[in-house]
User: Fold Alpha-hydroxy-acid oxidizing protein from Actinomadura luzonensis.
Amino acid sequence: MPNHGDFQFGIYLDGLSGTRPELPMTYAELARRAERVMSEQVWSYVEGGAGSEGTQRGNVAAFDRWGLVPRMLAGAAERDLSVELFGARLPTPLLLAPVGVIGICAEDGHGDLATARAAAATGVPMIASTLTQDPMEDVAAQLGATPGWFQLYPPNDRELTESFVRRAEKAGFSAIVVTLDTLTLGWRPRDLAIASFPQLRGLCLANYFTDPVFRARLAAPPEEDPQAAAGLWAMLFGNQRLSWDDLPWLRSLTSLPLLLKGVCHPDDARRAVDAGVDGIYCSNHGGRQADGGLPALDCLPGVADAVGAHVPVIFDSGVRSGVHVLKALALGASAVAVGRPYAYGLAVGGQAGIEHVLRCLLAEADLTMAIDGYPRIADLGRDALRPVAR
Ligand SMILES: Cc1cc2nc3c(=O)[nH]c(=O)nc-3n(C[C@H](O)[C@H](O)[C@H](O)COP(=O)(O)O)c2cc1C
Ligand SMILES: O=C(O)C(=O)c1ccccc1
Assistant:
């Protein structure tokens, strides 16, 4: 099997005949190109964060405070980037984070399907958002042999929540991720300045509009009165009263692995595991929800230590490179999810753009493992990192 890093040699060889890669090779260039092709509203929504966007910048900057320690002659000629999660061996430690507007990041409005196809092509699992342009059943149908997880925003309506979980199970998703950091929408000055919130225009609400429980709550079907349907969505979305007391009920809804997303405090992680949750997803939502927060990376070691090695910890927020992936793994993540990078890959190059972003992340991670002498993910422990002196 070729190593992921071998991808670079093809690019250099093409260069001998004057061909350069069409797709960007850096995150900065990817974002620049995405801004050019996306509408003002979608760009603002995807790129923007909460408040001053300090948490968002801090998420990325936090990675630079750690340095990998290279080891020589460590037998890293072949690297194994696979990880095991909930009994399944995954080819890489990457996941596609749930991105609620991924559908409209694609030119044709079917970005959820393109993402699922990229997952099918790469073996990188997709975590499908509750907020998709195409219903979850259609998304799942594109995943091929690659696992898909369903991300649940539990509406403040138990019957509807139950219907979503039932549908996700039936569609073939193999885990449920309940997001807890977005029980109400954060303060997002960019979107406020242009008075734009895509879901209120009826976008990305396919799971609601196709749901029998949701439809039963409407006087007219969404096809006839989309405004009223979007209004009902807004009424049902916020769920600030959700509490630890609801966790046994959430747990009872499925026998699939259940993960809680947005957990950053060790006590919350422990409490979740004590309540029967199978995995913790450490994230601050890419800095989109609360400004003034700790970088998510700084929360990761505490969360990982609190739950122990037998409970998978997924990490996201600020991952922009293959090296970032390795640092998160070394700080205790079992697997690492990417958000904005693949949304921009999709905007710039469709399904192939997502695959390109994943290929670049994996190539850099793989080559760094080769050069620094860490042949397997399991070799990347805390002692692979040192704090950078300031
Ligand atoms: C445009 C956008 C939409 C998102 N929608 C969801 C969502 O529907 N559900 C969810 O749990 N997280 C959502 N997230 C958060 C991501 O899952 C992830 O936590 C975040 O993007 C990680 O930060 P990063 O983009 O800086 O890598 C969204 C993120 C973005 C950028
Ligand atoms: O924008 C988001 O990050 C997100 O996940 C979301 C989805 C619906 C309502 C509010 C926020």
Remarks:
- The chain has a mean pLDDT of 98.
- Residues 45-46, 59, 97-101, 129, 131, 151, 179, 261, 283, 285-286, 288, 316-319, 338-340 surround flavin mononucleotide (ligand 1) (CB under 6 Å).
- The chain has one domain: 27-71+85-240+249-387.
